[in-house]
Amino acid sequence: MAKRNTISQLLANMRSTHFTTDNNINRKTVCISYQKINYSMLKKSLFILLVGLLASTITIAQKNRISIYSGLFHNYFDGSPMLNVNYHSDEWGFFKNRFFSSFGIAYQRKLNSKSSIYIDVDYRTNEWKHIFPNLETNAVQARENVTANLGYKRNFMLSKKFNFIYGGGINFRRGHESILVSYGKFIGTDFYHSNSVSRNVNDFGLNIRTGIEYTPVKWLTLYSKFNLIGFFFLDDRETIDLLQRDYEGYGYSEYPHRFDLSWRFGVGFNF
Q: pTM of the predicted model, to two decimals?
């Protein structure tokens, strides 16, 4: 009987040990499978997150733009030169100073796929050189001003890379204008000197613009546009009244000229 009990206990222990070992193997297998599932889910989550960040970056890249431009043509409707070629010599300055008499910088923020707001600041200087040799009067001899524009624009897609744009806004111009009114001779010579009146420019106005934009890649835009500014509030009324009166026999009744029509070319960087 003792031998039978001993054999029974041994068999029972073997069964118990085998069962326990199977359970441990199953637990390890489940644990390893769970880790594999977690690692796979982690990879998918990271991939989705990276795709989301990339898409967000691309979206942001389409909303902002900083651009530089030059107004190669200006028409003030006062007889002054339209073409921006006011350079001193062929040797002087960067680009031989051909583009420095009208240039600016702009920032644009896209509101949606068709609308944007913009702010730009441009510098303009002009000197009408031939009026002195011709002894012309009642003419703007020189001007220098900085104009800030704030506005809203819309775009119409012509193709994947070309857009037609239009819009408008308000602007403020600050600077000065020199108006040539008469001449005098130096005593004992045949040389003339000019008599001019200067007006301080602190004017408010409105602008409208239209043009074409070309975007070969998402981060770069080239554009050409027409910009018309009209000023409804003109500062320094005292000087304006003086010029409009018969100043030394030369009344400049057409002054001031309230409009500036320009043809601008620029390059923008989208980010």
A: 0.70
